[in-house]
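Intended use. Records like the one below are meant for learning the mapping from a protein sequence to its folded structure. Do not use them to infer anything beyond what is encoded.
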Amino acid sequence: MPSSSPRRRNPATPVPTGAGPGATTTTLGSAGEPESPLARKRRARRMYSVLHDRYPYAHCELDFRTPLELLVATILSAQTTDVRVNLVTPTLFARYRTAADYAAADRVDLETILASTGFFRNKADALLKLGAALLERFDGEVPGRLADLVTLPGVGRKTANVVLGNAFGIPGITVDTHVGRLARRFGWTELDDPVKVEQVLGDLIPKADWTMLSHVMIFHGRRTCHARKPACGACPVARWCPSYGEGETDPVKAAALLAYELAPGREDDLATLVAAARAYPSEPVPYAVAPTASSAAAVQGGSA
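Structure written out for the chain above:
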């Protein structure tokens, strides 16, 4: 849906570099000169810093207590929302606690529990095979190495990086739909391939920040920089974004598009989250933020 405000672009307009088909994105500044790799890196790091300040409480929104629970929840999150997965996993995790439990699970029981997540037969099959593989090759434990994780059924680099970063504290960049979309919208790359996008972001942002980078980009994509109608007028990194103007630029109208704890009327929720993040900077903030009316359709539709 087009913005109700006249489209305006920042002076910096993205153009492809000559490093190959859709390799990376550069920008043309006010002087009409291409953005250098160093300038892009500085811009990316400035944008990340501002987004980190906006979402100091950003974290993995899947509920889990162990590496196995996070691995299972991440597999289940394919083609659905974290909100939906979190509604299902309490029952699942109470019944299936170990890799051996999944390996010996009754398929019909698994499918019944997973029915609301979509593609439940494929997901039940993946969990059965996952449990068997963990037992056979890793003594029932979730491995803490990327090379090992990606050999497991239903586990690719995205899932592996989620587990490494959030269950083992090993930095990793999770290129999901939001991260890939924002990386292109920010003019950091024009690439679509998640592995290549991961490599580009890894070159732009220090390794120690990779996991948090994923979190703040996902939070920003869900709350502000929406796929169809980004809230440009309420975006803290608009001044550095070459895509400014693709969404609503009027500050008041843009603020109405903000979702979850940033939505109008949720100021107390936001203040609580920020205070908790500042008081316990090394701990994830335990909370469940209910979607607002503006985000409910996205949650139900599986795009949040």
